[in-house]
Structure formats: C-alpha cells, structure tokens
Amino acid sequence: MSRKIGIVGSGLIGRSWAMLFANVGYQVVIYDIEPKQIESALVDIEQQLKKLEENGLLRGTLNAEQQFACIRGTNSLEEAVKDAVLVQECVPENLELKRKVWKSVDDVAGPATIFSSSTSTFLPSLFSDHLKNKQNIVVSHPVNPPYYVPLVEIVPAPWTDLAVAKKTRAIMEEIGQTPVSLSKEVPGFVVNRLQYALLNETWNLVSDGVLDVQDIDKVMSDGLGMRYAFLGPLETTHLNAEGFIDYCKKYSNTIYSVSKDFKPLEKWEGPQVDEIAKQLEKLVPLEKLQERRSWRDLALTKLSQLKKSL
Ligand code: NAD
Questions:
Q1: 4-181 carries CATH number 3.40.50.720
Q2: What is the pLDDT along the chain (310 residues), one digit of tens a residue?
Q3: The CATH number of domain 191-309, selected from 3.30.360.10, 1.10.10.10, 1.10.1040.10, 3.40.390.10
Q4: 8 Cα–ligand 1 center, Å
Q5: Residue 270 Ramachandran class (φ > 0 left, ψ -120 to 50 alpha, else beta)
Q6: 4-181 matches 191-309 in fold
Q7: What is the distance between the alpha carbons of residues 4 and 220, in angstroms, rounded to a whole number?
C-alpha cells in the first residue's frame, strides 16, 4: 500500500500536516503555487522538528532528522499527488480556489487516492460535485495548532464512499490525531456549531451587562474549560449526578427553563462590537497579539503533555 501523502498548500496548516504525517514515517510531498513558500516551509519544518526534539516534545518514534527526511517539496502538482494514499489540501479559504485546486488534483490523481480538505467552513459537496473521483472527497478539519490539539473532524459529502471516510479516520488515528466522524455534512461541522452556541451566549450576557469581557472569559478559562479539557459536556453531566438518567431527572426542568430565557439570535454588528473590542484590547493590545499567541501555544503544549501523562 502507498505510504505517500501529497500536501497542497504549504502555509501554516500545510506545514503542520506535513509534520504530523512524517511523525509515523509517511513519505510527504509538499506542493505550493508559490515555489518560495515551499522553500520557507521546508526551512521552518526542519527548525520546528529540531526544536521539538530539543524540548522532548517530538511525536513519533523517528528522530527529527529521520522525520525531516520523509518530507520533500516539488513544483509539480502531479508529482505531489500521483499515487498518494491521501492528498491533504491546505489552500486559502476561498471556495472558487478550492474548486479549481480539487479539479486540478482530480485530473492527475488516481482513483485510489483520498481527497482530504482542511477547510474550516465549506461543506465538501460545495467543492467536489464537479470531480470524476468525487466519491473520494472528505473534509479533515484540524484545530489550530494541530500538533498539540489533536481533534480532526471528518466530514463526508453526500456522495463520499463510506470506506474512504473510514480509511481517513484510520490514517488520522495512525498519525496520533483524534478523529471524529460526522455521518453527514452540516454547516459549521461540529466544532464551530458548539463554539458559536457559546459565543452567542457570551455576546448576549455582555450586551445585557451581566458580566464584562474579562470575567466572562474567566468562566471558561478558570471554570468550565478546566473540566472540558479532560471530559466532554455529556460525561460531565454523567459524573455530576448518579449517571445520566439521574442527571436528566434532576436537571431537565432547570435546563429547559433556563434555556427558554436565551435571547433570539443576533448578528454581531453595531456598537457592541466596538465595546467588546475595547475591553479585549485593554487586556491584549493589538501589538501584543503575537506574544499572547505564543503563550497560548506554550500553554497548549503543556496541557497536551499533562493529558498524555494521565
Ligand atoms: P495559509 O494562507 O497560511 O496558506 C495557504 C497556502 O496555500 C499558501 O502557502 C499559498 O501560497 C498556497 N496556495 C494558494 N493557492 C494555491 C494553489 N492554487 N495551489 C497550491 N497552493 C496554493 O492558510 P492556512 O492558515 O494554512 O489555511 C489553509 C486551510 O486550512 C484553509 O482552508 C483554512 O480554513 C484551513 N484551516 C486553517 C486553520 C488555521 O487556524 N489557520 C485551522 C483549521 C483549518
């Protein structure tokens, strides 16, 4: 069976995927429309792998040099995708571009290659209906930074062969990610549906002046989020009573009556946007965003180490 992976688009996410596939020895071939991007991706990946090794954070059993030797670049799309077991597309989030790129891949890849897109927002049916191998399309949506946050949402189009979705899941497990398999495509997949439910309620609570921005974020970072890093919301309910049936008996009326108090959906527009931005920029000024992102990534690294040690 082929051990080749084609990566199309070598930006932030393409680089992460390349490292993840190489950590178990897949032969990764990176293509980008910008040859300079490939060069800088290879330099960046080599540095990242070395740093991970130095800090004892390298995944897999191969050393950094061996992992890097599994990755190469090419200026030919055909060379990247031909006979690959899976092509991971990581081009910018633009529907027309995704349609065009997948058509080009479809023209040169064989019928046994899985077509896997990193898209965060587009349903797979939107960019695969015109492909001759459309039964091979799936979305494999990672969460940033994928090296430390292992979740991958696997989303089929209505015409995706079930065996393709299953094989994609098996490959994701093999590289050490945590796949979840949606039975059908739904807008926002699942990560963003859950995220937006939470964001909508934070918007309403801040609009009503119940909590300010700093305190509402603490409810997650120093409250619910502490649990959710280890247990999902459903298992949390199971543990918070004598099992889920007992939880429903005890709390279903409360959940129902509090939920009836939720406000109708609002668009994120108007003076409230400026007010929230003002409070956030006081906490993290725009010129400090990069510094704070680095701190977030360090915190996620330590959390992933803790999770592995439990
Ligand atoms: P990016 O802008 O960092 O990288 C995109 C790369 O694609 C660039 O190197 C660009 O040169 C290349 N490219 C553009 N057109 C191309 C073409 N026709 N053929 C080949 N390469 C081409 O973008 P990113 O942040 O890595 O995002 C890539 C995908 O991953 C998007 O669909 C995005 O929604 C998804 N995603 C991003 C994140 C994130 O946090 N950045 C998280 C999950 C999913």
A1: yes
A2: 679 999 999 999 999 999 999 999 999 999 999 999 999 999 999 999 999 999 999 999 999 999 999 999 999 999 999 999 999 999 999 999 999 999 999 999 989 999 999 999 999 999 999 999 999 999 999 999 999 899 999 999 999 999 999 999 999 999 999 999 999 999 999 999 999 999 999 999 999 999 999 999 999 999 999 999 999 999 999 999 999 999 999 999 999 999 999 999 999 999 999 999 999 999 999 999 999 999 999 999 999 999 989 9
A3: 1.10.1040.10
A4: 9
A5: left
A6: no
A7: 41
Whether the ipTM is more than 0.95: the answer is yes
Ligand 1: residues with CB < 6 A are 8-14, 32-34, 37, 90-93, 97, 101, 118-120, 141-142, 144
- Establish how many alpha carbons lie within 13 A of residue 245's alpha carbon, considering only the half-sphere containing its beta carbon: 0
